[in-house]
Amino acid sequence: MAAPMLAENPPAEEVRTVDLTVRRAQQGDTAAFEQIYRANVGRIHALCLRLCGDPVRAEELTQDVFVRAWERMGSFQGKSAFSTWLHRLAVNVVLGDRRSESVRVHRVFATDEPEKFETPSMRGSDPGTAMDLERAIATLPPGARAVFVLHDVEGYKHEEIAEMQGSAVGTSKAQLHRARRLLREALGR
Amino acid sequence: MTHERTLELLDDFVSGELEPREEREVRRHLMQCESCRAEEQALRALLDEAAALPDEVMPDDDLWQKIAPRLQARAAVAAETERTPEVRVIGPRPVRPLPWWMLAAASIALVIVTSLVTLRFAGRGAEPVLATQTAQPPRTGATAGGTPTALAAFRPAEQEYEKAITELQAALQARRGQLAPQTVATIEANLRIIDQAIRESRAALAADPNRPELAEMLSDAYDTKLDVLRQAVSL
Known about the structure:
The complex is a heterodimer of chains A (about 190) and B (about 240). Chain A has helices spanning about 10-25, 30-50, 55-70, 80-105, 125-140, 140-155, 160-165, 170-185.
């Protein structure tokens, strides 16, 4: 896989390259947008997979995120890092999907496909431990799972999560407590 | 600080989200209490694992092949953007004041569903919930094996719900004078229905404290109450 184009603290040269790529994509250059896709797809897919708990739906949502990003490239003004903008857009797409999903059809968690969490491209942790936790996260109730992923994996604050979900801070805290308890039970700790 | 209060605050403590005074008190209690310390260590281990999850998980397929055909030409997209110049990337769900009859219908449906499930789970072919409420033996909050019951495990979450509800009710009370009497009456009627759903779900859980589905249902009823209160406060 390509080196992360939109890392947290990239060197100045890399920032300029990203700026140029984003600008080209804003002007309608699909080749530039493909570069953006390739640099970010792993992170966005990981987020979608953990938030929705369904590998098939996660791939659909990942596609939706990039199509939405393309449509909204014009609204990116460079006030935050592009990766931050894209990440937040992805959270919005998945949470929006969950809200509309809840009034359409109740999806069954695809936890019978644990191999989806064992892909060789997972990096940075002990594979066995990470897979156990990934599987346990996928079995959480949707509300608790979303708060756990956003708070404990992605590092959002309760206030931000409450704002994203249109709920109270107390609700976010209650869901996090529930998620942690269920995960510890699932992992036998 | 008491043992129970420490456990309530532990989630915020390990997340570093406590006020300095409370953080000091929790820390002091942890120094003296071995079981709370074990709880804290288990939580921290879980958080360490979560933080160590891989940043990237690649999809099985090259999704670009499916994305590329969906991308409209930039000129068309630009024209669309001009019509909606301000695109909010993230933010609260748009406040969509629902007609009160819809809320009432939803609440009534909730009560009906709750009642049905209450009878199904708590009754279990025996006596209905209201009869079992008075006949239950004292509960310890744990099963014979020492595992916390669903009821006991839900208690901290319930306290968070109650806290959030109290805050919203105070906000609603402050706005009460600005609302039409008819609106206030409708809100109160809806809240009564939801409170009934909460009472029934709670009674069902008390009657069968080892059933996590009932805790889930109680949680849903609290969520509904919070939604109604939030809507009322935003009127």
